[in-house]
Specification:
The complex is a heterodimer of chains A (about 150) and B (about 400). By secondary structure, chain A is α+β, with helices and mostly antiparallel strands. Chain A has 5 helices and 4 strands; from the N terminus they run ααβββαααβ. Helix content of chain A is about 40%, strand content about 20%. In chain A, about 45% of the residues are buried. The N and C termini of chain B lie far apart (about 45 Å). Chain B contains 14 helices and 17 strands. Chain B is α/β, with parallel strands linked by helices and about 400 residues long. In chain B, a hairpin with a 2-residue loop joins strand 1 and strand 2. Classes of the chains: A alpha+beta (about 150), B alpha/beta (about 400).
C-alpha cells in the first residue's frame, strides 16, 4: 500500500473531494475542452487572460481523482501567472510526472510526483495541462490525450 | 468432472505474480488467457509445419493447408454450421462485421433503407454501420435498453419495419452481460425480409451456439475471447448470401484467374480470404475449440454462473457499490460503479492487489451515456476463475474503500 499512498496523497483526496475553482466562468475569454478517450474523462477549462496574465481559471468536467485533483491544483497555480510562466510550469510538470528531473519550482503541484510510478495514470495527470495549452492557443478542436 | 484447480494448471500465466501478489485475472471479457494446448499448437505449427498454404506442391505446404483447413472444420462443427464454405477466417469479430458492412452493405442498401442495432452494442457493431450509412444514405436506428440493461420489451417489434434491411445485434453484451433473445429477433427480422448479423464475440465462450437453430444470416466472433490467439476470428454467413456478395479485399488466394482485362474470383470461402491468412492463429483457434469442447461448455457455463452469483451477492451487500447491468439471465460480467470513487482509481488500487479488471467505457460509450456514468469497473469471469478469486476482488474493493472513503 505504501506506493499507493505515494500516488494518492491527502492533498489529492482533498482536491478530488473539494475541487477548487470548479464551475463556469462568465468573464472567461479563453476556453478549451480536453478528453481522454481511454477512460472517458472530460474537462473544460475557462480562463480570463488579460495583458498576457491569467487572471482567473476555472474548470468543469468529470474524471478520476488524479485528473480532478490535477486540474484543481493547476487552476490554483495558474492564477496570477503570465502565459510564459504557465508554459514553464507545464514543462516542469510534464518532466515530473514522466519521472524526469526538473529545475522548475512546482510548489504544491509536487504532490503529483507519485504519478510517475504509475505509467497508466500519467495521462490522467496531464489532461488538464494539455487542455491549458489548447486554451492559451484558443484551439477550437477538443484536445485529446491520444 | 469440472475441477478448476486442475484446469488452472493448463494456463501457465495464472502462476505469475503481479506487484508481488498472485495474479487474479478478472478481465476475460477483454481477452481470455491461453491454455497450453493453444500455445503448443502454435509452437508445433511453426516448429514442424510452417509453409504457405493452398499453393505449394511440397509436403510442408500440404501439411500446413491440412492443418489450416482442419481448423475451419472445427469452427464449422463448433457453431453448428452446415457447410465449411460458410466459415470465413478474419482478423477478428471487428473485421468480420466490417466485411459484411462493406461487401453485403454497399451492394444491398439504398437511401432510406434502415439498419437496426441496439443501444448495448460494442463500437465494432456501431461504427461500421455508421460508415455504411454515410456511404449509402441508409438510416441507423437504435433499439433502446431498459434500466436493467435488457432490450425494451416490444421495441424490436415496433422498430422493425418494411425498410429494415439488416439487424445487427450482440448475443451477449460485453459491458452489461445481458443475453439477448437472438432467435426471436431473427424470426421478426426475417418476417420483413431483413438479414441479421449476430455479434457472438462475448457469447461463444459462455454458451453453446448453433447458427442453424438461430437461423441468423451472419455470425461473428473472435478467437482471443475463446481461449485462442489474437488476430484470428470468424465470419459465418449463409452460403446463398455469401455467394452473392462481392469480394471484400483483393489479392492472392481469393482469385480464380487474373488478367489485366478481367479477374474471376475463387469459390467460397476463399473469395473472402485475400492474402496469406493467420495460419498459426487459425490452428491455435482450432486447438482452443478442442480444448473447450473437451472441458464441456455446459460445465463451463455452470461454473461461471456460480462465480457470477457469488460476485453479485457480495456486490449487493457492499454499501456504495451499484451494479450496472442486472438483466435476468445475464452472463460473464459484473459491471459496477462505486460512490465517490472513479473506476480508474478503483482499477489502479486493485492492480496493486494483483487483481486485474477493466475500467473505462468498454468500447460501449452509448451504454455509459444510457446510465449517465463516465465509465464503469468491470470484473469478468472465465472457466479458470475461482470463488477465492471473487473473494479477493471484494477484499481489494475494501482496500479501495479504506483508502478513499475512510
Amino acid at each position: 500500500m505504501s506506493d499507493l499512498r505515494d500516488l494518492y496523497q491527502e492533498v489529492i483526496f482533498d482536491h478530488n473531494r473539494h475541487p477548487r475553482n470548479f464551475g463556469p466562468l462568465a468573464t472567461a475569454n479563453r476556453h478549451a475542452d480536453g478528453f481522454n478517450p481511454l477512460c472517458g474523462d472530460r474537462l473544460t477549462l475557462h480562463l480570463r487572460v488579460e495583458d498576457g496574465v491569467i487572471r482567473e481559471a476555472r474548470f468543469e468536467g468529470a474524471g478520476c481523482a488524479i485528473s480532478t485533483a490535477s486540474a484543481s491544483l493547476m487552476t490554483e497555480a495558474l492564477i496570477g501567472k503570465s502565459e510564459a510562466e504557465a508554459a514553464v510550469l507545464f514543462e516542469g510538470f510534464h518532466h515530473m510526472v514522466m519521472g524526469e528531473i526538473t529545475s522548475v519550482d512546482l510548489g504544491k503541484l509536487a504532490v503529483l510526483a507519485g504519478v510517475s510510478e504509475f505509467p497508466a495514470r500519467v495521462k490522467c495527470a496531464t489532461l488538464a495541462w494539455h487542455t491549458l495549452n489548447a486554451a492559451l492557443k484558443n484551439a477550437s478542436q477538443p484536445v485529446s490525450t491520444e | 468432472m469440472f475441477e478448476v484447480e486442475a484446469l488452472r494448471r493448463q494456463f501457465p500465466i495464472l502462476q505469475r505474480q503481479v506487484h508481488g501478489r498472485p495474479l487474479v485475472y478478472l478481465d476475460s471479457a477483454a481477452t481470455t488467457q491461453k491454455p497450453l494446448a493453444v500455445i503448443e499448437a502454435e509452437r508445433h505449427y511453426y516448429e514442424t509445419l510452417n509453409a504457405n498454404i493452398h499453393r505449394g506442391v511440397h509436403a510442408l505446404s500440404q501439411e500446413a493447408t491440412d492443418a489450416f483447413e482442419g481448423a475451419r472444420d472445427k469452427v464449422r462443427a463448433f457453431i453448428g454450421a452446415a457447410r465449411r464454405e460458410e466459415i470465413i477466417f478474419t482478423r477478428g469479430a471487428t473485421e468480420a462485421i466490417n466485411l459484411v458492412a462493406h461487401s453485403w452493405g454497399r451492394q444491398s442498401l439504398a437511401p432510406g433503407d434502415e439498419i437496426l442495432i441496439s443501444e448495448m452494442e460494442h463500437h465494432a457493431n456501431i461504427v461500421p454501420w455508421q460508415l455504411l450509412c454515410e456511404a449509402t444514405g441508409a438510416i441507423l436506428k437504435v433499439i433502446p435498453i431498459d434500466a436493467r440493461g435488457a432490450l425494451v420489451p416490444g421495441a424490436v417489434d415496433a422498430m422493425i419495419g418494411p425498410r429494415t434491411r439488416l439487424v445487427g445485434i450482440t448475443q451477449v453484451s460485453n459491458a452489461l452481460g445481458t443475453v439477448n433473445p437472438v432467435a426471436d429477433i431473427v424470426r421478426q427480422a426475417h418476417r420483413v425480409g431483413a438479414v441479421v448479423l449476430v455479434d457472438g464475440a462475448q457469447a461463444v465462450a459462455h454458451q453453446p451456439v448453433d447458427v442453424v437453430a438461430l437461423d441468423c444470416d451472419f455470425y461473428v466472433f473472435s478467437g482471443h475471447k475463446l481461449y485462442g490467439p489474437t488476430g484470428i476470428g470468424v465470419l459465418y454467413g449463409k452460403q446463398a448470401l455469401l455467394e452473392r456478395m462481392p469480394p471484400y479485399q483483393g489479392g492472392g488466394d481469393m482469385i480464380a484467374q487474373v488478367t489485366f482485362e478481367k479477374t474471376t474470383y475463387n469459390s467460397l470461402p476463399y473469395k473472402f480470404e485475400a492474402g496469406t491468412p493467420h495460419i498459426a492463429g487459425a490452428i491455435g483457434l482450432g486447438a482452443a475449440i478442442d480444448f473447450l469442447q473437451h472441458i464441456g461448455l455446459d460445465a463451463v457455463a455452470r461454473h461461471e454462473d456460480r462465480l457470477l452469483a457469488h460476485a453479485t451477492q457480495q456486490a449487493e451487500a457492499f454499501e456504495g457499490l451499484t451494479c450496472v447491468g442486472t438483466a435476468p439471465g445475464k452472463v460473464g460480467v459484473l459491471s459496477f460503479v462505486m460512490k465517490g470513487v472513479h473506476p480508474h482509481d478503483i482499477g489502479t488500487i486493485l492492480d496493486r492487489e494483483g487483481v486485474a479488471i477493466r475500467t473505462g467505457h468498454h468500447c460501449a460509450m452509448p451504454v455509459m451515456d444510457r446510465y449517465q456514468v463516465p465509465a464503469t469497473a468491470r470484473a469478468s469471469f472465465a472457466m479458470y476463475n475461482t470463488i477465492g478469486e471473487v473473494d479477493a476482488l471484494f477484499r481489494a474493493l475494501r482496500r479501495v474503500e479504506e483508502l478513499f472513503l475512510k
